Protein backbone atom coordinates (compact mmCIF):
# COMPACT_ATOMS: atom_id res chain seq x y z
CA UNK A 1 0.00 0.00 0.00
CA UNK A 2 1.18 3.51 -0.77
CA UNK A 3 1.80 5.73 2.22
CA UNK A 4 2.64 9.39 1.84
CA UNK A 5 5.00 11.16 4.14
CA UNK A 6 3.07 13.88 5.94
CA UNK A 7 6.08 15.65 7.42
CA UNK A 8 5.56 19.37 7.09
CA UNK A 9 7.98 22.17 6.56
CA UNK A 10 6.45 24.98 8.59
CA UNK A 11 9.59 27.04 8.08
CA UNK A 12 8.52 27.44 4.43
CA UNK A 13 5.31 29.24 5.50
CA UNK A 14 5.87 32.98 5.59
CA UNK A 15 4.55 35.23 8.35
CA UNK A 16 2.24 37.00 5.91
CA UNK A 17 0.81 33.70 4.68
CA UNK A 18 0.40 32.50 8.27
CA UNK A 19 -1.69 35.59 9.08
CA UNK A 20 -3.95 34.95 6.08
CA UNK A 21 -4.33 31.30 7.05
CA UNK A 22 -5.20 32.23 10.65
CA UNK A 23 -7.91 34.63 9.45
CA UNK A 24 -9.52 31.97 7.27
CA UNK A 25 -9.18 29.22 9.88
CA UNK A 26 -10.60 31.28 12.74
CA UNK A 27 -13.46 32.61 10.60
CA UNK A 28 -14.28 29.06 9.55
CA UNK A 29 -14.28 27.92 13.19
CA UNK A 30 -16.50 30.83 14.25
CA UNK A 31 -19.07 30.22 11.51
CA UNK A 32 -19.16 26.47 12.15
CA UNK A 33 -19.34 26.78 15.96
CA UNK A 34 -21.96 29.54 15.91
CA UNK A 35 -24.32 27.92 13.40
CA UNK A 36 -23.81 24.47 14.94
CA UNK A 37 -24.49 25.80 18.43
CA UNK A 38 -27.66 27.55 17.26
CA UNK A 39 -28.89 24.40 15.52
CA UNK A 40 -28.17 22.28 18.60
CA UNK A 41 -30.00 24.74 20.86
CA UNK A 42 -32.99 24.98 18.50
CA UNK A 43 -33.11 21.19 18.22
CA UNK A 44 -33.26 20.93 22.00
CA UNK A 45 -36.09 23.48 22.12
CA UNK A 46 -37.98 21.64 19.36
CA UNK A 47 -37.73 18.29 21.13
CA UNK A 48 -38.61 19.84 24.48
CA UNK A 49 -41.73 21.48 23.04
CA UNK A 50 -42.87 18.29 21.36
CA UNK A 51 -41.79 15.58 23.81
CA UNK A 52 -41.62 17.55 27.12
CA UNK A 53 -38.63 15.43 28.10
CA UNK A 54 -35.49 16.71 29.87
CA UNK A 55 -33.63 14.23 27.64
CA UNK A 56 -34.04 16.83 24.85
CA UNK A 57 -30.95 18.86 25.78
CA UNK A 58 -28.70 15.95 26.80
CA UNK A 59 -28.47 14.00 23.53
CA UNK A 60 -25.01 15.37 22.72
CA UNK A 61 -23.75 14.65 26.24
CA UNK A 62 -24.63 10.98 25.79
CA UNK A 63 -23.89 10.39 22.11
CA UNK A 64 -20.62 12.36 21.69
CA UNK A 65 -18.58 10.44 24.33
CA UNK A 66 -19.97 7.15 22.99
CA UNK A 67 -18.82 8.05 19.48
CA UNK A 68 -15.42 9.11 20.84
CA UNK A 69 -14.92 5.74 22.52
CA UNK A 70 -15.85 3.88 19.33
CA UNK A 71 -13.48 5.99 17.21
CA UNK A 72 -10.62 6.06 19.74
CA UNK A 73 -8.54 3.30 18.11
CA UNK A 74 -9.07 3.89 14.36
CA UNK A 75 -9.50 7.67 14.13
CA UNK A 76 -6.11 8.85 15.42
CA UNK A 77 -4.21 6.45 13.17
CA UNK A 78 -6.26 7.42 10.10
CA UNK A 79 -5.69 11.14 10.80
CA UNK A 80 -1.93 10.65 11.21
CA UNK A 81 -1.66 8.56 8.02
CA UNK A 82 -3.78 10.61 5.65
CA UNK A 83 -3.37 14.08 4.16
CA UNK A 84 -5.44 16.38 6.35
CA UNK A 85 -7.08 18.64 3.78
CA UNK A 86 -8.84 15.83 1.84
CA UNK A 87 -9.85 14.31 5.18
CA UNK A 88 -11.39 17.61 6.34
CA UNK A 89 -13.17 18.12 3.01
CA UNK A 90 -14.58 14.58 3.11
CA UNK A 91 -16.07 14.92 6.59
CA UNK A 92 -17.50 18.38 5.97
CA UNK A 93 -19.25 16.94 2.90
CA UNK A 94 -20.51 14.04 5.07
CA UNK A 95 -21.88 16.57 7.58
CA UNK A 96 -23.51 18.52 4.75
CA UNK A 97 -25.10 15.37 3.37
CA UNK A 98 -26.41 14.43 6.81
CA UNK A 99 -27.91 17.92 7.19
CA UNK A 100 -29.67 17.76 3.83
CA UNK A 101 -31.09 14.27 4.51
CA UNK A 102 -32.10 15.28 8.04
CA UNK A 103 -33.90 18.38 6.79
CA UNK A 104 -35.72 16.36 4.14
CA UNK A 105 -36.85 13.51 6.40
CA UNK A 106 -37.57 14.90 9.87
CA UNK A 107 -41.12 16.01 9.00
CA UNK A 108 -41.91 12.55 7.64
CA UNK A 109 -41.89 11.25 11.21
CA UNK A 110 -44.71 11.89 13.62
CA UNK A 111 -44.12 14.29 16.50
CA UNK A 112 -43.72 11.42 18.97
CA UNK A 113 -41.06 9.76 16.76
CA UNK A 114 -38.98 12.74 15.63
CA UNK A 115 -36.33 11.77 18.15
CA UNK A 116 -35.35 8.91 15.79
CA UNK A 117 -33.92 11.07 12.93
CA UNK A 118 -32.53 13.48 15.53
CA UNK A 119 -30.49 10.71 17.21
CA UNK A 120 -29.22 9.43 13.84
CA UNK A 121 -28.27 12.96 12.77
CA UNK A 122 -26.54 13.78 16.07
CA UNK A 123 -24.56 10.51 15.86
CA UNK A 124 -23.39 11.17 12.27
CA UNK A 125 -22.52 14.77 13.18
CA UNK A 126 -20.57 13.58 16.23
CA UNK A 127 -18.48 11.26 14.02
CA UNK A 128 -17.86 14.04 11.47
CA UNK A 129 -16.98 16.59 14.16
CA UNK A 130 -14.57 14.15 15.81
CA UNK A 131 -12.61 13.73 12.58
CA UNK A 132 -12.84 17.43 11.65
CA UNK A 133 -11.72 18.78 15.04
CA UNK A 134 -8.93 16.24 15.53
CA UNK A 135 -7.67 16.62 11.95
CA UNK A 136 -7.63 20.40 12.29
CA UNK A 137 -5.62 20.26 15.51
CA UNK A 138 -3.19 17.81 13.94
CA UNK A 139 -2.76 20.05 10.89
CA UNK A 140 -1.72 23.31 12.57
CA UNK A 141 1.89 23.01 11.39
CA UNK A 142 0.62 22.67 7.82
CA UNK A 143 -1.30 25.95 8.08
CA UNK A 144 1.06 28.35 9.88
CA UNK A 145 4.72 28.49 10.80
CA UNK A 146 5.80 27.57 14.32
CA UNK A 147 5.82 31.17 15.53
CA UNK A 148 2.10 31.55 14.78
CA UNK A 149 0.87 28.26 16.28
CA UNK A 150 0.08 29.89 19.69
CA UNK A 151 -1.85 32.71 18.00
CA UNK A 152 -3.89 30.25 15.94
CA UNK A 153 -4.74 28.23 19.06
CA UNK A 154 -5.68 31.33 21.08
CA UNK A 155 -7.88 32.84 18.38
CA UNK A 156 -9.55 29.49 17.71
CA UNK A 157 -10.39 29.31 21.43
CA UNK A 158 -11.71 32.90 21.21
CA UNK A 159 -13.92 32.01 18.25
CA UNK A 160 -15.36 29.03 20.13
CA UNK A 161 -16.00 31.20 23.20
CA UNK A 162 -17.72 33.88 21.11
CA UNK A 163 -19.92 31.23 19.51
CA UNK A 164 -20.80 29.87 22.96
CA UNK A 165 -21.69 33.40 24.01
CA UNK A 166 -23.92 34.19 21.05
CA UNK A 167 -25.51 30.90 19.99
CA UNK A 168 -28.00 30.50 22.91
CA UNK A 169 -29.19 34.12 22.62
CA UNK A 170 -29.51 33.99 18.83
CA UNK A 171 -31.01 30.51 19.02
CA UNK A 172 -33.82 31.60 21.35
CA UNK A 173 -34.51 34.82 19.42
CA UNK A 174 -34.57 33.23 15.97
CA UNK A 175 -36.46 30.09 17.05
CA UNK A 176 -39.47 32.12 18.11
CA UNK A 177 -39.45 33.95 14.75
CA UNK A 178 -38.39 31.33 12.18
CA UNK A 179 -39.14 27.91 13.63
CA UNK A 180 -36.82 24.90 13.59
CA UNK A 181 -36.65 24.17 9.83
CA UNK A 182 -34.88 27.46 9.08
CA UNK A 183 -32.04 26.50 11.40
CA UNK A 184 -31.32 23.52 9.16
CA UNK A 185 -31.19 25.78 6.09
CA UNK A 186 -28.95 28.20 7.96
CA UNK A 187 -26.58 25.39 8.98
CA UNK A 188 -26.43 24.05 5.40
CA UNK A 189 -25.51 27.53 4.13
CA UNK A 190 -22.91 27.91 6.87
CA UNK A 191 -21.31 24.55 6.08
CA UNK A 192 -21.06 25.47 2.38
CA UNK A 193 -19.26 28.65 3.42
CA UNK A 194 -16.96 26.67 5.74
CA UNK A 195 -16.19 24.29 2.86
CA UNK A 196 -15.27 27.22 0.59
CA UNK A 197 -12.98 28.65 3.28
CA UNK A 198 -11.33 25.25 3.72
CA UNK A 199 -10.76 24.92 -0.03
CA UNK A 200 -9.01 28.31 0.01
CA UNK A 201 -6.60 27.21 2.76
CA UNK A 202 -3.19 26.00 1.64
CA UNK A 203 -1.79 22.98 3.48
CA UNK A 204 2.00 22.98 3.32
CA UNK A 205 3.33 19.44 3.03
CA UNK A 206 6.88 18.25 2.54
CA UNK A 207 7.75 18.04 -1.18
CA UNK A 208 8.31 14.30 -0.67
CA UNK A 209 4.53 14.04 -0.40
CA UNK A 210 4.48 14.06 -4.18
CA UNK A 211 6.87 11.10 -4.27
CA UNK A 212 5.27 8.45 -2.07
CA UNK A 213 7.30 5.71 -0.49
CA UNK A 214 6.17 2.12 -0.75
CA UNK A 215 5.50 0.95 2.72
CA UNK A 216 2.89 -1.16 4.41
CA UNK A 217 0.47 0.91 6.48
CA UNK A 218 0.09 -0.14 10.11
CA UNK A 219 -3.36 -1.31 11.12
CA UNK A 220 -5.57 0.92 13.24
CA UNK A 221 -4.73 -1.18 16.31
CA UNK A 222 -0.99 -1.06 15.61
CA UNK A 223 -1.14 2.70 15.10
CA UNK A 224 -3.09 3.12 18.33
CA UNK A 225 -0.51 1.03 20.20
CA UNK A 226 2.29 3.27 18.89
CA UNK A 227 0.47 6.34 20.24
CA UNK A 228 -0.28 4.64 23.54
CA UNK A 229 3.33 3.50 23.92
CA UNK A 230 4.53 7.05 23.31
CA UNK A 231 2.11 8.29 25.96
CA UNK A 232 3.30 5.72 28.52
CA UNK A 233 6.94 6.59 27.85
CA UNK A 234 6.37 10.28 28.61
CA UNK A 235 5.15 10.83 32.18
CA UNK A 236 4.45 14.56 31.79
CA UNK A 237 2.12 13.89 28.88
CA UNK A 238 0.35 11.23 30.93
CA UNK A 239 0.04 13.70 33.83
CA UNK A 240 -1.51 16.31 31.56
CA UNK A 241 -4.17 13.92 30.30
CA UNK A 242 -5.08 12.86 33.85
CA UNK A 243 -5.36 16.51 34.89
CA UNK A 244 -7.51 17.31 31.85
CA UNK A 245 -9.85 14.46 32.82
CA UNK A 246 -10.10 15.75 36.40
CA UNK A 247 -10.86 19.29 35.24
CA UNK A 248 -13.57 18.13 32.84
CA UNK A 249 -15.15 16.08 35.61
CA UNK A 250 -15.13 18.90 38.18
CA UNK A 251 -16.30 21.56 35.73
CA UNK A 252 -19.52 19.65 35.05
CA UNK A 253 -20.52 20.95 38.50
CA UNK A 254 -21.03 24.32 36.79
CA UNK A 255 -23.09 23.13 33.81
CA UNK A 256 -25.21 20.82 35.98
CA UNK A 257 -25.29 22.68 39.28
CA UNK A 258 -25.56 26.35 38.38
CA UNK A 259 -29.03 26.08 36.74
CA UNK A 260 -30.25 23.93 39.64
CA UNK A 261 -28.94 26.23 42.37
CA UNK A 262 -30.05 29.49 40.75
CA UNK A 263 -33.50 28.44 39.53
CA UNK A 264 -34.66 25.65 41.84
CA UNK A 265 -32.86 26.61 45.05
CA UNK A 266 -32.40 30.40 45.00
CA UNK A 267 -35.35 31.11 42.65
CA UNK A 268 -33.62 33.98 40.84
CA UNK A 269 -34.95 33.07 37.39
CA UNK A 270 -33.66 32.31 33.90
CA UNK A 271 -32.40 35.84 33.24
CA UNK A 272 -29.87 35.62 36.09
CA UNK A 273 -28.67 32.24 34.82
CA UNK A 274 -28.17 33.66 31.32
CA UNK A 275 -26.31 36.66 32.73
CA UNK A 276 -23.90 34.50 34.72
CA UNK A 277 -23.30 32.04 31.88
CA UNK A 278 -22.54 35.00 29.62
CA UNK A 279 -19.94 36.19 32.14
CA UNK A 280 -18.21 32.80 32.02
CA UNK A 281 -18.07 32.76 28.21
CA UNK A 282 -17.04 36.42 28.19
CA UNK A 283 -14.07 35.70 30.44
CA UNK A 284 -12.94 32.90 28.12
CA UNK A 285 -13.25 35.19 25.11
CA UNK A 286 -11.31 38.05 26.77
CA UNK A 287 -8.45 35.85 27.92
CA UNK A 288 -8.21 34.07 24.56
CA UNK A 289 -7.87 37.39 22.74
CA UNK A 290 -5.23 38.58 25.23
CA UNK A 291 -3.28 35.33 24.90
CA UNK A 292 -3.27 35.71 21.10
CA UNK A 293 -1.12 38.81 21.59
CA UNK A 294 1.35 37.10 23.96
CA UNK A 295 3.96 34.39 23.66
CA UNK A 296 1.98 31.37 24.87
CA UNK A 297 4.97 29.01 24.67
CA UNK A 298 6.76 30.40 27.75
CA UNK A 299 6.27 29.36 31.39
CA UNK A 300 3.91 26.55 30.42
CA UNK A 301 3.91 24.67 33.72
CA UNK A 302 3.61 27.84 35.83
CA UNK A 303 0.61 29.00 33.79
CA UNK A 304 -1.00 25.56 33.90
CA UNK A 305 -0.58 25.09 37.68
CA UNK A 306 -1.62 28.68 38.38
CA UNK A 307 -4.68 28.39 36.15
CA UNK A 308 -5.77 25.09 37.70
CA UNK A 309 -5.22 26.20 41.31
CA UNK A 310 -6.96 29.50 40.56
CA UNK A 311 -9.92 27.65 39.04
CA UNK A 312 -10.26 25.59 42.21
CA UNK A 313 -10.26 28.75 44.34
CA UNK A 314 -12.78 30.39 42.00
CA UNK A 315 -15.15 27.43 42.45
CA UNK A 316 -14.82 27.76 46.22
CA UNK A 317 -15.63 31.47 46.07
CA UNK A 318 -18.55 30.79 43.70
CA UNK A 319 -20.03 28.34 46.20
CA UNK A 320 -19.67 30.95 48.98
CA UNK A 321 -21.35 33.60 46.80
CA UNK A 322 -24.30 31.27 46.18
CA UNK A 323 -24.47 30.41 49.89
CA UNK A 324 -24.43 34.03 51.10
CA UNK A 325 -26.79 35.16 48.29
CA UNK A 326 -25.95 38.84 48.65
CA UNK A 327 -25.27 40.93 45.51
CA UNK A 328 -25.43 37.58 43.74
CA UNK A 329 -25.35 38.79 40.15
CA UNK A 330 -22.43 41.19 40.54
CA UNK A 331 -20.25 38.92 42.66
CA UNK A 332 -21.20 35.79 40.73
CA UNK A 333 -20.50 37.46 37.39
CA UNK A 334 -17.08 38.64 38.58
CA UNK A 335 -16.11 35.18 39.83
CA UNK A 336 -17.30 33.49 36.64
CA UNK A 337 -15.52 36.09 34.50
CA UNK A 338 -12.26 35.21 36.28
CA UNK A 339 -13.02 31.49 36.02
CA UNK A 340 -13.61 31.87 32.27
CA UNK A 341 -10.27 33.64 31.89
CA UNK A 342 -8.49 30.91 33.86
CA UNK A 343 -10.18 28.26 31.71
CA UNK A 344 -8.86 29.92 28.56
CA UNK A 345 -5.37 30.10 30.08
CA UNK A 346 -5.45 26.36 30.82
CA UNK A 347 -6.89 25.33 27.44
CA UNK A 348 -4.61 27.52 25.30
CA UNK A 349 -1.46 26.67 27.27
CA UNK A 350 -2.17 22.96 27.07
CA UNK A 351 -3.07 23.01 23.39
CA UNK A 352 -0.03 25.08 22.43
CA UNK A 353 2.24 22.75 24.43
CA UNK A 354 0.92 19.70 22.62
CA UNK A 355 1.03 21.30 19.17
CA UNK A 356 4.55 22.68 19.53
CA UNK A 357 6.27 19.68 21.15
CA UNK A 358 4.56 16.49 19.98
CA UNK A 359 5.86 14.80 16.82
CA UNK A 360 3.56 15.81 13.97
CA UNK A 361 3.06 12.18 12.94
CA UNK A 362 1.53 11.44 16.38
CA UNK A 363 -0.58 14.57 16.87
CA UNK A 364 -3.76 12.89 15.65
CA UNK A 365 -3.41 9.87 17.93
CA UNK A 366 -2.46 11.81 21.08
CA UNK A 367 -5.15 14.45 20.45
CA UNK A 368 -7.68 11.67 19.89
CA UNK A 369 -6.69 10.00 23.17
CA UNK A 370 -6.97 13.23 25.15
CA UNK A 371 -10.26 14.25 23.50
CA UNK A 372 -11.86 10.89 24.22
CA UNK A 373 -10.59 10.77 27.81
CA UNK A 374 -12.01 14.23 28.50
CA UNK A 375 -15.33 13.62 26.79
CA UNK A 376 -15.92 10.39 28.69
CA UNK A 377 -15.61 12.33 31.95
CA UNK A 378 -18.49 14.63 31.01
CA UNK A 379 -21.36 12.10 31.31
CA UNK A 380 -19.71 10.60 34.40
CA UNK A 381 -19.52 14.07 35.93
CA UNK A 382 -23.10 14.82 34.86
CA UNK A 383 -24.42 11.67 36.54
CA UNK A 384 -22.37 12.25 39.69
CA UNK A 385 -23.29 15.91 40.12
CA UNK A 386 -26.94 15.38 39.21
CA UNK A 387 -27.15 12.87 42.04
CA UNK A 388 -25.25 15.10 44.48
CA UNK A 389 -27.30 18.23 43.76
CA UNK A 390 -30.55 16.33 44.07
CA UNK A 391 -29.80 14.82 47.49
CA UNK A 392 -28.06 17.84 49.02
CA UNK A 393 -29.98 20.23 51.25
CA UNK A 394 -27.24 22.88 50.74
CA UNK A 395 -26.30 22.45 47.06
CA UNK A 396 -24.09 25.56 46.93
CA UNK A 397 -21.60 23.76 49.20
CA UNK A 398 -20.99 21.23 46.41
CA UNK A 399 -19.18 23.99 44.51
CA UNK A 400 -17.00 24.64 47.56
CA UNK A 401 -16.16 20.94 47.97
CA UNK A 402 -15.45 20.57 44.23
CA UNK A 403 -13.18 23.62 44.33
CA UNK A 404 -11.23 22.21 47.25
CA UNK A 405 -10.96 18.86 45.44
CA UNK A 406 -9.45 20.55 42.39
CA UNK A 407 -7.21 22.91 44.38
CA UNK A 408 -5.78 20.24 46.72
CA UNK A 409 -5.31 17.80 43.83
CA UNK A 410 -3.21 20.38 41.98
CA UNK A 411 -1.21 21.30 45.09
CA UNK A 412 -0.42 17.62 45.72
CA UNK A 413 0.36 16.98 42.05
CA UNK A 414 2.66 19.99 41.61
CA UNK A 415 5.89 18.29 42.84
CA UNK A 416 5.24 15.37 40.49
CA UNK A 417 4.53 17.72 37.58
CA UNK A 418 7.77 19.62 38.14
CA UNK A 419 9.71 16.36 38.51
CA UNK A 420 8.23 14.86 35.34
CA UNK A 421 8.76 18.08 33.39
CA UNK A 422 12.48 18.04 34.25
CA UNK A 423 13.05 14.59 32.81
CA UNK A 424 10.42 14.63 30.07
CA UNK A 425 10.05 17.44 27.56
CA UNK A 426 8.57 14.98 25.03
Automatic annotation (TrEMBL):
<dbReference type="GO" id="GO:0022857">
    <property type="term" value="F:transmembrane transporter activity"/>
</dbReference>
<feature type="transmembrane region" description="Helical">
    <location>
        <begin position="182"/>
        <end position="205"/>
    </location>
</feature>
<dbReference type="Pfam" id="PF07690">
    <property type="entry name" value="MFS_1"/>
</dbReference>
<feature type="transmembrane region" description="Helical">
    <location>
        <begin position="87"/>
        <end position="109"/>
    </location>
</feature>
<dbReference type="InterPro" id="IPR011701">
    <property type="entry name" value="MFS"/>
</dbReference>
<feature type="transmembrane region" description="Helical">
    <location>
        <begin position="304"/>
        <end position="322"/>
    </location>
</feature>
<feature type="transmembrane region" description="Helical">
    <location>
        <begin position="152"/>
        <end position="176"/>
    </location>
</feature>
<feature type="transmembrane region" description="Helical">
    <location>
        <begin position="272"/>
        <end position="292"/>
    </location>
</feature>
<keyword id="KW-1133">Transmembrane helix</keyword>
<dbReference type="GO" id="GO:0005886">
    <property type="term" value="C:plasma membrane"/>
</dbReference>
<feature type="transmembrane region" description="Helical">
    <location>
        <begin position="26"/>
        <end position="48"/>
    </location>
</feature>
<feature type="transmembrane region" description="Helical">
    <location>
        <begin position="240"/>
        <end position="260"/>
    </location>
</feature>
<keyword id="KW-0812">Transmembrane</keyword>
<keyword id="KW-0472">Membrane</keyword>
<feature type="transmembrane region" description="Helical">
    <location>
        <begin position="54"/>
        <end position="75"/>
    </location>
</feature>
<feature type="transmembrane region" description="Helical">
    <location>
        <begin position="397"/>
        <end position="418"/>
    </location>
</feature>
<feature type="transmembrane region" description="Helical">
    <location>
        <begin position="362"/>
        <end position="385"/>
    </location>
</feature>
<dbReference type="InterPro" id="IPR036259">
    <property type="entry name" value="MFS_trans_sf"/>
</dbReference>
<feature type="transmembrane region" description="Helical">
    <location>
        <begin position="115"/>
        <end position="132"/>
    </location>
</feature>
<keyword id="KW-1003">Cell membrane</keyword>
<feature type="transmembrane region" description="Helical">
    <location>
        <begin position="328"/>
        <end position="350"/>
    </location>
</feature>
<protein>
    <submittedName>
        <fullName>Major facilitator superfamily permease</fullName>
    </submittedName>
</protein>
Amino acid sequence: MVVKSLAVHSAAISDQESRKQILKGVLSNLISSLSGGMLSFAMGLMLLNETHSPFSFSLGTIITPTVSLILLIPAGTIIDQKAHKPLLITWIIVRLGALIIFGGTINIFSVSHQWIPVIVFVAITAVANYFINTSYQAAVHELVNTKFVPRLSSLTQAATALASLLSPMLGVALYSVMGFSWFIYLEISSQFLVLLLLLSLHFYYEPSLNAPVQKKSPSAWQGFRVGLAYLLQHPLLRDLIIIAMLVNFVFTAISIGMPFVLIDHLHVGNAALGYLETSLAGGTLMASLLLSMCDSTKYFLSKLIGGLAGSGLALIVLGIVFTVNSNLLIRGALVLLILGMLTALINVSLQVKLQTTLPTNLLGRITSLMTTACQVMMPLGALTYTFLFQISSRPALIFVISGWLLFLSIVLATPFLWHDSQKDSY
